[in-house]
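Minimal example, chain plus uridine-diphosphate-N-acetylglucosamine.
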Amino acid sequence: MDRIRIVGGRPLRGTIPISGAKNATLPLMIASLLTEETLVLENVPRLADVSQLQRILGNHGVDVTLNGKRSGDGEYQGQTLSLSAKNIVDTTAPYELVSKMRASFWVIGPLLARMGQARVSMPGGCAIGTRPVDLLIMALARLGAEIEIDGGYVVARAAKGLKGGEIRFPSVTVSGTHTAIMAASLARGSTRIENAACEPEIVDLADCLNKMGARISGAGTPRILVDGVARLGGARHRVLPDRIETGTYAIAAAMTGGEVLLEGARPELLQSALDLLAQAGVGVAATNQGVRISRNGSAIAPVEVSTAPFPGFPTDLQAQLMALMTCANGVSRITETIFENRFMHVQELVRLGARIQLHGETATIEGIERLKGAPVMATDLRASVSLVIAGLAAEGETIVNRVYHLDRGFERLEEKLGRCGAEIERLSG
Ligand code: UD1
């Protein structure tokens, strides 16, 4: 199993190109199931989760082709995927595939809406909490689907097609909102989604669906209206930049000191996180090329923050922020409100010398002068990258095990950091 070796203590200086957003790419790829025409997605990141979803969609009969670089394309230009679901050959998503990537459960909405039936394995447990799918099921039931659970599978039927309805989410859910939008797009009549997630990836999906002929308004606000259409067509869509990758490298630059341009980043996608960094004493400047992050010698001021749905501070940056706060000049408090059990990085950061106490959903972090390198490992994507960030600033060598978590969500991490002066390498085997 690959590991990453880091020798900490070098400031980051240079340019980091920001890739297309993983969390937008996955639902966009799944949206290809809604049409028999071809959906072309540009700026798709090269990630293990994308390859895994290609396999899952292939199982349903989606033909996926990957266009390589065109002449003139920059080295870091994302890939272009063409997805054609002309013939859906199977409406079952088996346990072996869904259990590998939770988001693949989302195929249930498009399969049901287009084919009138879907049989999708429940995703099962996950390292960051139970992550149920009850709200996705509720949304589909509100659109007229008959649903039963059979042998670990959610079996959904709508023999005469879905029909519009009102979906009121009791709590904000990104997965529920994606599912509701996709299913309602092909339902008969209008759907109103209340307390919808406002995340930029929801807006990106709605934009793409509208290009395919859907009639969705209000995406990015808590009330989304969808007028169902009889069929959707093909489209070409460019995936928006990854705000979590942006925030991660912004925090890495803040942690090590130095100055980094996050090229192609869109600051409005992560304003809460950038504001928090500025509050902590980090230099943050929006430029026409992206976002510039700098810290030259000044101390990191401690912060108090709770994770929250967009536009609040994202749970997907919680672990990285905690890594930064281990070296702040005082005591920070970080509260996780979205996922239970999303603190696996705490014990690993403690192995690097961090002083962190957990009380329920709140971590209290007492800043110290310097972390010390050690072997560490984590069991989820964002936790793993927080250990990389910590390692970049720690004295001596840090080995991050289970790198496959990083490969799920960060494209060429060691290359991007290495080019900015980090001493970081992948050890194979
Ligand atoms: C997505 C992101 C993930 C991010 C999260 C929150 C993708 C691929 N993943 O995950 O990176 O951390 O949004 O911003 O885009 N819930 C229920 N019942 C449900 C669905 C969700 O109780 O049916 C709960 C979850 O357990 C969680 C909360 O709602 O506590 C938020 O989940 P949700 O917004 O749906 O997250 P995901 O879409 O899974």
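The chain has two domains: 3-19+241-427, 22-238. DSSP finds 14 helices and 24 strands in the chain.
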